[in-house]
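Sequence in, structure out. Go.
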Amino acid sequence: MKLQRKNRRALALGALAVSGALALTACGSDDTGGNGNGGDSSAAAPAGNIDCGDAKGQLQASGSSAQKNAIDAWVKQYSAACKDVQVNYNPTGSGAGITAFLQGQTAFAGSDSALEAEEIEQSKKICKDGQGVDLPMVGGPIAVGYNVPGVDTLVLDAATLAKIFDSKITNWNDEAIAKLNPDAKLPDLKIQAFHRSDESGTTDNFTTYLKEAAPKDWSYEPGKAWEAKGGQSAQGSSGVAQQVKQTSGAISYFELSYASDGLKTVDIKTEAAEPVKATIENATAAIGAAKVVGTGKDLALELDYTPSAAGAYPIVLVTYEIVCDKGNKAETLPATKSFLNYMASEDGQAQLADAGYAPMPEEIITKVRETISSLA
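Output:
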């Protein structure tokens, strides 16, 4: 298995991506948008077994836009049960979310990428007698969406994707694409490849996949910022998805929830006998094979970007919630623990599949719950 951003980090400590609501937007996937304050919660029936405890006041968080839809869903239910707490989640993107957390501006951050070693060191200034830890909370596939008239099914592999996003394959009827799709009527149409303009955990995970699965064809180091030459850019997962929807010949990457509006997604050819579709079930199969590699209370995961098992989708994203293990502000600690506990609860995780996300495997989420209960 390959360590997330192994080529970029000495330590892969998962970053906390707080954004519970219906659809993983993109941690690191980081769209910009309004604060996820849950809106009008009066229409939401209180979720069962939500323990509000002593939680009260405002809870500020920001980061991954990938998980924004999930956060929105969680906030709606939580706010209906815990009326003394106002949760404000700003989907500024993973990079911006981590920065805000390290500056002490938020109680936790959401990120689709793990904290870097230097970020862990910085967190010790904010987390008195402790440090930032990574709690995997939301998972899902990073879909590759495309808009090619007349092509309803498209198969691509890592090498071909790498060449497309590095501007080395520039037309949809290219021989390499035709070889993977012998029955498709590929048009003589220019490829319009879109990438994220903002620093994004989705970009980090997508480029890690390209680097691990097609090292000969992707020479760039994985990271939140896009490094390859050429292509076009747009802000956030919603931005690139919108470009694919309205641009003939377009292709881009985003959380599966952004493909719910009729966008077609690529089937990925792996070492398995059949190409793998971007589905929640197939992402769960891949995440289930992940290993916890963080130390202490950190629960950063090691993902396998080159799976050979049937039905294991290779481009997956895990969004982490980043929080202090010790040294949390006394005025926000009760609300932080209460809200995170709900997100990690059986009820909270049960909402994810309907929202287009993959719940965390039981052995992982059990450890998350244990860590949340020990926050101080």
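Check: Confidence is low (pLDDT under 50) at residues 1-47. The chain has eleven helices and 15 strands.
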